[in-house]
Amino acid sequence: MSYCLEDFRGYIKSCVWKNAKTYEHFAPHEYVLSFPCEKLKAENKCSGDCVTCKAQRQAFENAVMFIREHGERAQFTKRIYTMLCVEDYQYWSYGDPIETTWVLNKAIINDPRCKVKTYWLDSD
Ligand SMILES: [Zn+2]
User: Fold this and answer.
1) Residue 20 CA, ligand 1 centroid: distance in Å
2) What is the pTM of this model?
3) pLDDT at 94
């Protein structure tokens, strides 16, 4: 069984997205955070129920890898990200490799409130 778009849709629906307040008036977006259990333990934030920790981390990593495999390159400010568009949102992560990726973001595609244009590098 391989991970598919329906799995990705299920994951993004299950997430509790937080509003990125510092970017509210510049580049409005929402995000979720995920940390590997080992990191949570080192910071005394592991629930002790590592089955849950590990399953949550796996679901996050699967979603991030899906974006990296199926997304398009997009330039935003000076940086190039791989973004995946699903319905009205574009999804992207910071950090590479996957082991040090903690943040998954989403923003409305072509949001008129966004002060920075996204340049889609793979579109004709
Ligand atoms: Zn744990």
Assistant:
1) 26
2) 0.91
3) 84
